[in-house]
Amino acid sequence: MRSGHLAGAAVDGWPGQPRNPASRMRAHSMAIRSETIRQVTAQLYDRSLRGIPRDTEAALRRADAAERNETARRTLRIMLQSAEAAQHEQHFICSDAGVPVYFVKVGAQARFEGSVRQAITDGFAELVDTIEPPLLPHVTHPLTLERGYQGKGMPIVTFDLVDECDYVEITCSPKALGSGRWAALEIFSFPDLKTIETFVLDTVIKAGSQPCPPVVIGVGIGGTFDYAAKMAKEATLRPIGQSHPEQIVAEMERRLMQAVNQTGFGPMGTGGDSTAMAVHVNYCAGHGFTPVAVAFNCWINRRTRARLHNDGRVETLE
Fold first, then answer.
1. Under a CB-based contact definition with an 8 Å cutoff, are residues 225 and 218 in contact?
2. Helix H segments across 90-166?
3. Which residues contact 311 (CB under 8 A, 6 or more apart)?
4. Who contacts 281 (Cβ-Cβ below 8 Å, separation ≥6)?
5. I need a labelling partner for 226 at 20 to 30 A (CA). Which of 16, 214, 232, 272 fits?
6. Phi, psi dihedrals of residue 159, rounded to the nearest 5°
7. Rounded to an integer, what distance in angstroms lies between the CA atom of residue 275 and that of residue 258?
8. End-to-end CA distance of the chain
9. For 141, which DSSP code?
C-alpha cells in the first residue's frame, strides 16, 4: 500500500480503511489540514484584488496592438499600468471587492482534517479582519439593504467532485458590480443557434459599457435554470484563448466574439474594437425547455486558483 492512499479490505465498517494501526496513522497524517485551507482561501481572495491573471494581461496587450481607436488604446494602456502599479505597490486595482465566490473541486481520494466548508468560511472571515486596506462594505442584505463585509451564506462556495484525484482545487472569483449586475438568463423552447446567439448579443447590448469592458463573457446553455447559470459562471473562468473542444461550440464562440466586438462599446465605453477579450460557451443536455445564461467578468477578470494535495503540497496555479 502506498502511503497516503487508503487500501485493503473493509475494517470497522469503512470500505478501504487500512488494515493495521500503523497504516491508519500514516493515512491520517497524509491529509489536507483545515489551517492550510484557511490560509489558501484568504491568500486567493487577497491576490484576486491586487493583480490580474497572466492570460488577461496578454489579452489586454493584444487588444492594444489591434485596436484602431486611439482613445480606446489609451484606456487599455491605463488599465495595464493600473494593474502593474497595484501589483507592485500591493493596493487594490478596484475598490469594489465584490461578493466572495469560491469554486471548489474535491478529488474523490482527497482526505481532510475537519470541514472544508467551515475552513473556507473561517479563512474569509480572517481575511476580512486583517486585510489592508480594509474592504469596503459591499456585501448587502437583500431585504434590509444593510451593508457589511459578510452575511448569510457568505462566502458563496460551490463544490464539484473529481474522480481519481487526491487534491482539492480552489478557485476564487469575486463578483463585483461590473461582473455581477448584468448577468441574464432566459428559458427558450427548442431554440436554434440564431435564437441563442441573438439573446447573448442582446444581453451584451443592454449591458453596454457598464460591466467595465473589455469583458470575458460566459454562456451556459441547457440543463436546468440553476445549472445553466453555473455553467455560465464557470465559463468565465476558462483561460483566455482556450476554445471549446467541440467544433460546433468553438464556432459559436468565434461568431459571438466577432459580433460583440462589432458593437463598438470598447474599453470602458470609449468606443473601439475591444469590447470583449473572450466569449466562452459551456453546455449540457436538457429538456425541450432550454435555459440560456450569460455572465460577465470585468476587465480585471478576477481569478486566482490553487491546488492542495494530501501530502501537504500547495500548488499556485494562477
1. no
2. 116-130
3. 4, 30
4. 218, 219, 220, 221, 235, 244, 249, 252, 253, 256
5. 214
6. -120, 140
7. 10
8. 33
9. -
